[in-house]
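Hey, can you fold this one?
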Amino acid sequence: MPDRFHILIAEDEVLAAMALEDFLSFKGFRVTVAANGAEALERFASERIHALVTDLRMPRMDGETLIREIRERDTTLPVVVMTGYLTEDSDLKQERWKPLEIFSKPVNPRTICTTLHRMLGIPLEA
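Sure. Predicted structure:
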């Protein structure tokens, strides 16, 4: 069932992006990787995306700006944030940005996968 779902990963760390892409692809998701927020926004505008997984600190457009831009177009898209730089008073923790989950880096790809299953309503495999 995950093969029906297209995940957009916005991550400028190549190895982290590749590891997550490989894991989610292995679990059956269709995955597109963008190296920064601007590229991710272009992909979002041109492709049917079911969920976004994003870093916060990236060149050309940071993850917080990317999320704000996407929320203007789609208020229900599930968003998973992976970051090492979230402050306790971050605006992203407010209810208006949900559905949104935040994880501190490093994040186990299995955790991201389980979260995507939950957010997208996909049953987990036994």
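The chain has a mean pLDDT of 89. Let me know if you want another pass with a different chain boundary.
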